[in-house]
Predict the 3D structure of the following.
Amino acid sequence: MRYFPSLVLTTLFLLLPAARADIMSILPCQHDDIRLHMDDHNGLYNGMSQSGTSLVLHNTGKRACMLPPLPVLHFSDAARQPVTAERRTVRGMHPGPVLPPVIVPVGGELQILLRWVASDTFDGSNCIRPAFVSLSLDGGMLTVPFDRQMCAAKGQTGYYSQSLTGTP
């Protein structure tokens, strides 16, 4: 029994290069392999001046691929001009840990949960209504209609919180 830890460590040491080689052979997702849509789960996240939705990413490609764990989202108006809507930094995550990419199997779906204040509950009016939300992937952007009101405190642009990819 006293040799068990050495056996486990030796086994892990021998298996790690093979596992790392498998992960390294998975390439980043291309924009034409991923289908993006929103799912508000029948209003599950709505109430008490709050709202939310999930961005659902479905891999329709012919291979597994990698997505960033916390992708940057871009919001725009009806004319596709950028709208300033920054992600709120979660306490304890700044500057944040190093997060590995997320693997999406062929035919697999992952979600990114977005939450925000949906009505002007702050002193002063600081609300926006982006028409679209976009996600940049290798080869292009994926864009879906958004058309939701997001509010922040006066003088701030931290409008929404975002879960890690695959962890709603």
About this structure: The chain has one domain: 28-162. The two ends are 42 Å apart (CA to CA). The longest strand covers residues 50-59. Residues 4-24 form the longest helix (21 residues).
